[in-house]
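A quick aside before the break. I want you to see a complete sequence-to-structure record at least once, exactly as it would be stored in a machine-readable document. Don't worry about memorizing anything.
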Amino acid sequence: MTGIDREVLARAVEEVRRATGDPVIAGMFERSMAENLPAVAERLPDGTTFVLTGDIPAMWLRDSAAQLRPYLVLCGDDPELQDVLIGVLHRQLEYIVIDPYANAFNRAADGAGHTTDETEMSPWVWERKYEIDSLCYPIELAYRLWRITGRKEVIDHRFTAAATAVLELWRIEQDHERNSKYRFQRHDDRPSDTLVRDGRGRLTQPTGMSWSAFRPSDDATELGFNVPGNMFASAVLGYLQVIAREVLDDESLAAQAEELKAAIDDGIARHGMVEHSTFGRVYAYEVDGDGAHLLMDDANMPSLLSAPLSGFVAADDPAYLATRKLLLSPENPYYYSGSAAAGIGSPHTPPDYVWPIALAVQGLTSTSADERQRVLEVLRDTTGGTGQMHEGFHIDDPSKYTREWFSWANAMFCELALAHAGRRLPD
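That is the input. The structure line, written in tokens, reads:
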């Protein structure tokens, strides 16, 4: 079994129905929760769980954790579901030890994937686009599973090896120019699929933050230091300190996490914030440590909009609220508004395409129940007749969309519906 208990789901569906007053939204929620996880999760003989990233036959560290968020909300009452989720975590931790720079992995060491990329590939690796958030998600998943379930087997022998690899990589990438051997080039017709300077990426100067080659969209960073990725890293380094001290009794690991978190926090404060003439002091999306910055947001998580969900900042924090106003305005070059929807899109998809993930994040980070309801209704009405979320859809014509079925987006819709019903992941 890889799905959710029927009674647990039935109770949640009724809660969503009462909160929204909308049987269509409740029906979409029920279908997604019942079908999404069984469609992508496979229990393996070793007790781990392999999770497909929707319509791609590989397991992304990021997506496989993000797809679980609504199930985490409900797993406290479902021990069999807990087993599935713990199995996902344990497979993620094994993958990190194989190659912490990889973002996506194969079910077995069969050499499938992007084998022509110029980087240090392994037969286990589907894709080796290094993204800082790929290493954040498994640590967050470990922390949440441990807190929610209280089960000792969540943090097993795999965790320390993976956490140590993450810390080492993040410290190396604080000074990418001097310390890193990571290179990546892909020779196709998408400039965002490769790094400039023979695979090294644009020149950067140290900031205290940790460098990332690619964004959560799998598009190359422009300026190297992705601020929302570092926000997420800061939060999970806090989780790592707690696990190290309370579960592992490893003061050395906790101290390393604490030191790195302080450096990243300082880097965000000194380099990741800028003064805007209209909105005041706001967070930048990316910086290079040499004065350049990008004021924008991308639809994928972690984003600047999702900073409260990442655990970095409260949803009512003044700097976050100022940044939010900028992001949900034409000042964000990837904010689109049309007759069917208005929201954040991505350079990863065509212009004028809004992402359901970003809409769900907008609702989840709002302090207004009315706004959450409005976002749910927009998501209900923009499936192009499929009843499912897509990667992106056209702001004037939702029948034009990318990806027929996008498991992560379905999960974000479900998480928003649960949050509107008062069921959220613990802070």
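Two observations worth writing down. DSSP finds 16 helices and 15 strands in the chain. The chain has one domain: 6-420. We'll return to this after the break.
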